[in-house]
Amino acid sequence: MKRRFSFFALLLAFAMIVAACSSDSDDTTTTTTTEPAADTSVLDLAIEAGQFSTLIAAIDAAGLGETLEGEGPFTVLAPTDAAFDAAFEALGITAEELLADTETLTAILLYHVLGEAADSQLVATLDGSSVATLNPQTVDINVVDGQIMINEATVVSADLIADNGIVHVIDAVLLPPDIAEALGVAMAEEPMEEETTTTTEATTTTTEAMEPTIAEIVVESAAGDPAEFTVLLAALETAGLVDALNGEGPFTVFAPTDEAFGALLEELGVTAEELLANPDLANILLYHVVSGEFMAADVIEIAPADVPTLYEENTVAIAVVDGSVVINDVATVITADVMASNGVIHVIDAVLVPAS
Length: 356
Prior knowledge:
By secondary structure, the chain is of the alpha+beta class. The chain has helices at 6-21, 41-45, 53-61, 81-91, 95-100, 102-110, 120-125, 177-183, 190-209, 214-222, 230-239, 242-245, 258-268, 272-276, 281-286, 296-302, and strands at residues 74-79, 113-114, 129-132, 138-144, 147-150, 153-162, 165-170, 251-256, 289-291, 305-308, 315-321, 324-327, 331-340, 343-348. It has two domains: 3-209, Roll (FAS1 domain), CATH 2.30.180.10; 214-348, FAS1 domain. 40% of the residues lie in helices and 22% in strands. It has a seven-stranded mixed sheet with strand order 2-1-7-6-5-4-3. Strands 9-8-14-13-12-11-10 form a seven-stranded mixed sheet. The termini are far apart.
């Protein structure tokens, strides 16, 4: 029992950090995922996550804050504060009433946890499946228009990686079937459900409008702590492509990490300055960009395939190897579905070099 609950303790710590760090910044549905540091992975999650004050209160009320620990791995489907607000309104109850019912509350919380680490790529392959939770009732997974749906909830921020699992942020609270049936007596009639749906859609639309562009995400990441995409940003600035990636799009960008650029420089025996001075720099960057928005689920669905890039229609070869998306047999997608207002970023671990 100790093992199955662990991720909530980590999520509680994560949520507390987020509440402290995000009060001065706008909430967005931008999906920024970071590989965890050795012992402090939750710190990496705080940069891009939304607020989870209601989830914190729920964990405290259920008495899970100090006792839920273990190695995992787990996948947590974390509802936002807005998701909890919508649930309270739809159910016609207050937060206090739900938090006072610790048995029901614990069952609901466990319904948001899977007993394995499942990133967005793996979840996408489960399209049409039912997956057991620690409740242990099942949730239904579907991919609709490139968006991962868990029951009626949409994953709005994916692949937040922690030491003992993964967090996916969702825009609705998941109710176990037996609890949904029990609470159904107190639920509002159909007009209220329609109103709740409208409210949720309005919230999603507003949030999407706040998403940064692809170029803005690169700039933000380059200025972050830890910094990432610093070489990519320098290359985009040197090639004069920042405005292009601020454009309307949509684009799909395979973004090499700083480590990936470092490996390329070592392989070629050149310095960063020499790479930036290369007359083919713009073409190399355009070779990492595909016209259109392709989520991880879309990429997996079309693989294996040769996909045209913005570099004079030179193609990249996409394949799925051991569950991972691989580009040109050299680069692996290590973080998928980083959402922007004008497309999506997939972070890769190697620089793609056109054959020409």
